[in-house]
Structure formats: structure tokens, C-alpha cells
Write a structure and sequence with these properties.
Helices cover 34% and strands 17% of the residues. The protein has 6 helices and 9 strands; from the N terminus they run αβαβαββαβαβαβββ. It has a 5-stranded mixed beta sheet, covered by helices on one side.
Length: 226
Amino acid sequence: MKRAVAIIFLAAIILCTVSAQDYSRQLKVSGPSVYYQQVKNDPNKRLVEIKKYIPNIVLDIRYATTNNFTHHVMYNQAGAFTRLPVVLALQQVEAELKTHGLGLKIYDAYRPYSVTVKFYEVTRDTNFVADPKKGSRHNRGCAIDLSLIDLKTGKELDMPTGFDSFSKKAAADYPDLSKQQIANRELLKRVMQAHGFKVIPTEWWHYDFNGWQNYELLDVPFSAIK
């Protein structure tokens, strides 16, 4: 009986994998060579390393560790990249937050499309995981997962949930929270929106850059980013 259940479970995983991989054929996803040409035609489409533009920003790239919802290492390096206009906007966010004694902590930024497919193989809850049929704004280099830290202590501010929580409390407007959690969440929202970002409804930590539609879906590994 146990063996039969295991076989059924394995078959379900295989079917999900094949189905998810098939979605990539329905989209225009650019690999390294096409991406290099896109950058040659429009330098603003270049993926850049956030740390090189904001040296003091704190990185906690969860998908380069097992401390994430998949419990597996998904990135072979702890990289944080965005399109050039996105990081320039983040510079402005960081500068404004500094006047409050605060800074940003980045959990994730650009994400290769192939990793989005793997996430969908783990869970098909599209409230929290992008549908491979559409791709993710992370795949476009135009989405950032982040939180606030106190610059003096280096500690994260109290937020509604931890990163990558699949809880209802993670919603950007969830009301049943402490006053401090709401104040911290709304401060992050206000500053990010003032500099060209918009939070998504289901995740307080996920912000899309305005104009993300102008950037292609990419499946460029971190090692191929020049």
C-alpha cells in the first residue's frame, strides 16, 4: 500500500514538472544571447548588482539558502540584481529611509525564469507563486522582496509576518495586526510608492517597479550577468 502511494505521489510530481516546463514554450523568454542584444539596443535594460549601487544595503538572499518555503537552495550564489532604472529608484528609497534611521533588507530581486518554474512545481498556490504561463515580474528584473531595518541595531522592524509567509496576514492591507506592525508596513509602502514602486496585494514585502511591462522575461543565470 505504501509503495502504491509513493508511486502515485511520484507520478503526480512528474506530471506537474512536465506541465510547468511546457508553459515556458508559450512565452517569449530571453536567454543570455538575446538579453545581451537587448542591452546593446537599450542600456537601461541592463541587470546590475544592487550592492554596487547601494553598498550599505543589507542582503538576506533566502533562495541561496535552505531558509525558504522550498527548503532547498535555489540559487548558486547570493546575488541581488535588478534592471538599471530599478536600482536607481532604490537608491532614492534608501536615501529617504536613512533620514528616519532606517534602511532596506533585500530578500530577493531578479529571478531567472527557470527558478519560477521550479517554485511552481513545489506549490501551485498562485497567490504566492507566479504562474509559469505568465512569468513573474522578478523574471523581468523589476520586482524586489524587502523589509525595513533599524540602522543602529541592524534588526528588522516588526512586520506582519516573516518573508515568504503563505498566511493571510501577509496581505498588504491585512487589518488585524498590532499598531506597530501596521505603522511599519505602511511606512515601507509610502516610501516605496513615492519612488516608483507598487506593493502587490498578497505580499507586504513584494514591490513591482512601475513600467515593468517594458522589460522582457529573462532566463539568464546570475553567472551570465555582465
